[in-house]
Specification:
Elements (H helix, E strand, L loop, with lengths): L18 E10 L2 E11 L4 E5 L6 H8 L7 E6 L2 E2 L5 H6 L2 E4 L11 H5 L14 H14 L16 H14 L4 E5 L7 H16 L3 E6 L2 H7 L2 E6 L2 E7 L5 H9 L2 H14 L3 H7 L25 H6 L5
Parallel strand pairs: 3-8, 3-9, 6-7, 7-8
Antiparallel strand pairs: 1-2, 1-4, 4-5, 9-10
Helix pairs in contact: 4-5, 5-6, 9-10
GO molecular function, one term: ATP hydrolysis activity
Organism: Pseudoclavibacter chungangensis
Keywords: ATP-binding, Nucleotide-binding
């Protein structure tokens, strides 16, 4: 792993990038929410933004999605310096955000949610229901989502399926860059794998994807570049071939800080197994049979099954 200052050098004008940030910052009074962040979002690439709570991920999303204006550095859209003043302006430029708390109406059919706020109407103002149903079904099929009936309430879908409907909707309405805000945070292992699969499909359709997450084990299988934020500052910006999963996890988990904590807890409890359980970052989880990405590993800190067997413990 190379030094963050020399890793993934950024071109001066964001040439070829859908979105480019150059030393972008944001202050709220005396509070520095974001400082000197540089990042590129390219077509057909997944840029992962990782960080714990309070790292600056939400502020970064809001700047790119047009909710907040940056007050330092440059934001370039298609190579042009831009200050976004509204989400509508961002949408008009092809930037769509899918938030963790999806804006869906649970009791409405899937097709109604797909076109919510952008309904197709005929010259008499009547809804073109059959056309919207057909488009919804086809767009979901194109993303690999085969639903029996788009008339069913969207609330009957799993969390992962609802995320995928939101992704397909953004693609249909012309998104070139897709911001995904913690799409796997509230999902179980298998549903997270489903969402990761659809992130790859969005990438393969030429979209530039910004995947916001606090979980390096979800980011690494799908990511092409990784920006790590801590307290509003970048502590690393790497291409995939420049950083291993263990190194990425170490940066996220605190590295030396985590090891020091493990030893302190072990000293307090007199149990050396605490060190192994806290610092263990290996393992594997189930993924869908048709998931084509690299293996997705377990969350930080979960003991490996073989370790449990070795200790003769039962779950």
């Amino acid at each position: 792993m190379t030094d963050a200052a020399t890793t993934a050098p950024a071109p001066a004008k964001g040439a070829g990038s859908l979105i480019a940030l150059r030393d972008v910052g944001k202050h709220y009074g005396n509070i520095i929410a974001l400082s000197d962040v540089t990042m590129d979002v390219d077509p057909g690439r997944v840029t992962c933004v990782l960080g714990d709570n309070g790292a600056g991920k939400s502020t970064l999303i809001k700047i790119i999605a047009g909710l907040h204006k940056h007050d330092a550095g440059e934001l370039l859209i298609n190579g042009e310096a831009t200050t976004l003043s509204s989400p509508r302006q961002a949408l008009d430029l092809g930037i769509a955000a899918v938030y963790q708390d999806l804006a869906v109406v649970s009791l409405m059919p899937i097709w109604r949610n797909f076109f919510l706020g952008s309904e197709l109407r005929n010259s008499w103002g009547m809804l073109r229901v059959s056309e919207m149903k057909a488009i919804t079904k086809q767009e979901l099929l194109d993303m690999g989502i085969d639903l029996r009936d788009v008339e069913q309430p969207i609330g009957t879908l799993s969390g992962g399926e609802r995320q995928c409907v939101a992704i397909a909707r953004a693609v249909y309405f012309g998104a070139k860059a897709l911001i995904l805000d913690e799409p796997t945070a509230a999902l179980g292992v298998k549903q997270s794998g489903v969402v990761l699969k659809y992130i790859l499909r969005a990438r393969d359709r030429g979209l530039g994807v910004i995947f916001i997450t606090h979980n390096p084990h979800h980011a690494y299988p799908v990511g092409d570049r990784f920006l790590i934020l801590k307290r509003g500052k970048s502590i690393g910006y790497y291409a995939k071939d420049e950083v291993a999963l263990t190194e990425l996890t170490g940066l996220m988990a605190g590295g030396a800080e985590l090891e020091e904590l493990a030893h302190e807890l072990a000293a307090e409890s007199g149990n050396t197994e605490v060190i192994e359980q806290i610092t263990d970052i290996e393992g594997s989880i189930d993924t869908p049979d048709d998931f084509t990405g690299p293996p997705i590993t377990e969350a930080v800190g979960l003991p490996r099954p073989e370790d449990e067997r070795g200790r003769g413990k039962k779950r």
